[in-house]
Here is the input.
Amino acid sequence: MAEELIVSEAADKAGKYKGLLPQIEALVTGEPDLTANLANIASALKYGMDFFWVGFYLVKEDELVLGPFQGPIACTRIRMGKGVCGTSWEKAETIVVEDVDAFPGHIACSSDSKSEIVLPAFKDGKVALILDVDSDQVSDFDETDKEYLEQLMRVVEKFL
Here is the structure.
């Protein structure tokens, strides 16, 4: 088990992801506990990429329920189609929001959140959980984040 993550501060965003994702995969490989894996992934992303907030919401019946996260306190339950997370769940697709204040129906768990990327993970063809990443900067997420975080979600799907 890794005791620390090594992420080059000098690397660009893609370089940081390229260094971080294999370390995350090594960290969760062989660990069957979902909560432990999601907790370590949230921490690795928060500190490895210096994100404002990183967390998971798990699909439980007709709601998303807050799972492991890193950052300020968060909304506990989200209905399908509500906010960015509920919309990602409903559409079963990644959503990148440049300015959360411009997203219709955005749920403001923290007024410090300015932009967001939300990604689903699938089990048996259905969304099983959502990864929510927030920034305190407008337009902080782009295609690079989408590409590498979607790769991460394929890793997550292996232990769902």
